[in-house]
């Protein structure tokens, strides 16, 4: 007898009277022991899981193993404020000699020493352009010369200024470099003093002082709040924005697909699938992006409430921080929707690498990009975490200055949103024109 058609819930089901009703005769259940022996069942999960583990390990560990060995032009300011006259027989005062030796004595291109006035150095520290500074005081030559005459009232001091707003590790690397440079300069000056005729009759204690005459003090050049995680709150706050956009985008994506009948819903032992709603890929993406824009208002607000109101994170420019956080989170969410629309089921893995796996090690917020391998400096030019952490850092630590990274962050957010819209809708329109619809029968 030919098959006949019956419609249930707008879905066509095919049955045959020559065969018993499937509801009367239960189908045999497959067993795990039977399925586990199928090689094809293992292939795709094993390959994907192995590659993801390998790539994540290389990405995360490759960027942090040797910061000192990977140093490349870490910016540090050198301030020579010495106004003393040059010692007899020399063309430069001691401050100029120290500054010149510091700049010329750095091995390779590990550090980018920037000669600056005190005002310029203060501005560089306040805008996050340098990780620290070496400051030679105005009376440096006079104080050193006084050691040989017995008229010294205090030991000459060179000051090392740190910039914790750029992260504890970067500031620490800069401080170690400047302290080492200052110590080498002190020993060089000591050789001049101990060989001078004025030091010939000095007692052993005085000669010991003259051999290493300069003290090095360290102080914060641009202070940040006590509840700033030693300069790490900018990174973790930016990470929260990325995760909120990434997770929220994927939740919206799966939620819409479930509601429209393109994906199953399982909660514990309960399984349902709604009738399929006929809708184009372009209209589906438009719906998901519209919902992303609305729900991001809530997620962004909750991030700020948790971090600032509940936990007491130091934060300034609260309205600007909220607007920036919303736009940043929205850019990530729209990017997730575009990638999912283009790549389908594997889109979550692709977006995870784009917005998380590649972004975190290239953010430059925990390990300075100047202390990371070159591949991370390349990724940092366009990966979202680098841009967002720079913008958050500028708002939290550097008075929301545009030249501290905020303008670049805004520009990259605009580029990210535009790229997500163009890429997402270009792909869905292409699929729709090709007739590659998502409609599937509800069996």
Automatic annotation (TrEMBL):
<dbReference type="Pfam" id="PF12051">
    <property type="entry name" value="DUF3533"/>
</dbReference>
<keyword id="KW-1133">Transmembrane helix</keyword>
<feature type="transmembrane region" description="Helical">
    <location>
        <begin position="319"/>
        <end position="342"/>
    </location>
</feature>
<feature type="transmembrane region" description="Helical">
    <location>
        <begin position="234"/>
        <end position="252"/>
    </location>
</feature>
<feature type="transmembrane region" description="Helical">
    <location>
        <begin position="290"/>
        <end position="313"/>
    </location>
</feature>
<feature type="transmembrane region" description="Helical">
    <location>
        <begin position="41"/>
        <end position="65"/>
    </location>
</feature>
<keyword id="KW-1003">Cell membrane</keyword>
<dbReference type="InterPro" id="IPR022703">
    <property type="entry name" value="DUF3533"/>
</dbReference>
<feature type="domain" description="DUF3533">
    <location>
        <begin position="48"/>
        <end position="414"/>
    </location>
</feature>
<feature type="transmembrane region" description="Helical">
    <location>
        <begin position="409"/>
        <end position="428"/>
    </location>
</feature>
<feature type="compositionally biased region" description="Polar residues">
    <location>
        <begin position="10"/>
        <end position="19"/>
    </location>
</feature>
<keyword id="KW-0472">Membrane</keyword>
<feature type="transmembrane region" description="Helical">
    <location>
        <begin position="349"/>
        <end position="369"/>
    </location>
</feature>
<keyword id="KW-0812">Transmembrane</keyword>
<protein>
    <submittedName>
        <fullName>DUF3533 domain-containing protein</fullName>
    </submittedName>
</protein>
<feature type="region of interest" description="Disordered">
    <location>
        <begin position="1"/>
        <end position="25"/>
    </location>
</feature>
<comment type="similarity">
    <text>Belongs to the ABC-2 integral membrane protein family.</text>
</comment>
<dbReference type="InterPro" id="IPR051328">
    <property type="entry name" value="T7SS_ABC-Transporter"/>
</dbReference>
């Amino acid at each position: 007898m030919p098959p006949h058609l019956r419609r249930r819930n707008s879905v066509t089901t095919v049955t045959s009277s020559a065969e018993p009703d499937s509801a009367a005769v239960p189908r045999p259940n497959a067993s795990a022991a039977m399925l586990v022996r199928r090689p094809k069942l293992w292939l795709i999960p094993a390959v994907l899981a192995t590659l993801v583990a390998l790539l994540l390990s290389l990405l995360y560990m490759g960027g942090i193993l040797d910061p000192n060995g990977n140093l490349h032009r870490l910016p540090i300011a050198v301030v020579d404020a010495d106004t003393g006259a040059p010692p007899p027989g020399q063309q430069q005062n001691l401050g100029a000699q120290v500054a010149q030796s510091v700049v010329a004595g750095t091995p390779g291109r590990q550090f980018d020493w920037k000669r600056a006035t005190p005002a310029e150095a203060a501005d560089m520290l306040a805008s996050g352009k340098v990780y620290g500074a070496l400051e030679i005081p105005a009376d440096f030559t006079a104080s050193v010369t006084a050691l040989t005459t017995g008229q010294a009232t205090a030991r000459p001091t060179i000051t090392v200024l740190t910039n914790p707003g750029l992260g504890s590790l970067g500031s620490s690397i800069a401080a170690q470099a400047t302290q080492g440079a200052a110590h080498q300069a002190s020993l060089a000056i000591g050789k001049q003093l101990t060989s001078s005729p004025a030091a010939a009759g000095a007692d052993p204690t005085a000669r010991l002082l003259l051999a290493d005459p300069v003290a090095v003090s360290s102080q914060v050049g641009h202070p940040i709040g006590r509840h700033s995680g030693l300069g790490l709150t900018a990174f973790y706050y930016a990470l929260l924005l990325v995760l909120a956009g990434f997770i929220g985008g994927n939740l919206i994506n799966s939620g819409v697909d479930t509601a429209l009948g393109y994906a199953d819903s399982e909660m514990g032992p309960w399984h349902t699938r709604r009738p399929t709603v006929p809708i184009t890929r372009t209209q589906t993406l438009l719906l998901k992006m519209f919902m992303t824009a609305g729900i991001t208002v809530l997620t962004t607000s909750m991030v700020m409430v948790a971090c600032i109101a509940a936990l007491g994170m130091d934060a300034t420019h609260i309205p600007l921080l909220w607007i920036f956080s919303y736009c940043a989170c929205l850019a990530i969410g729209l990017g997730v929707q575009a990638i999912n629309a283009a790549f389908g089921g594997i889109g979550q893995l692709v977006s995870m690498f784009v917005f998380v796996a590649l972004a975190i090690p290239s953010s430059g917020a925990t390990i300075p990009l100047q202390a990371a391998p070159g591949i991370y400096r390349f990724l940092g030019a366009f990966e979202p975490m680098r841009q967002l952490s720079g913008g958050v850092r500028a708002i939290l630590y550097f008075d929301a200055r545009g030249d501290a990274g905020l303008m670049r962050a805004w520009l990259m957010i605009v580029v990210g949103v535009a790229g997500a819209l163009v890429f997402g809708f270009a792909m869905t329109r292409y699929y729709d024109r090709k007739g590659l619809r998502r409609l599937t029968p509800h069996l």
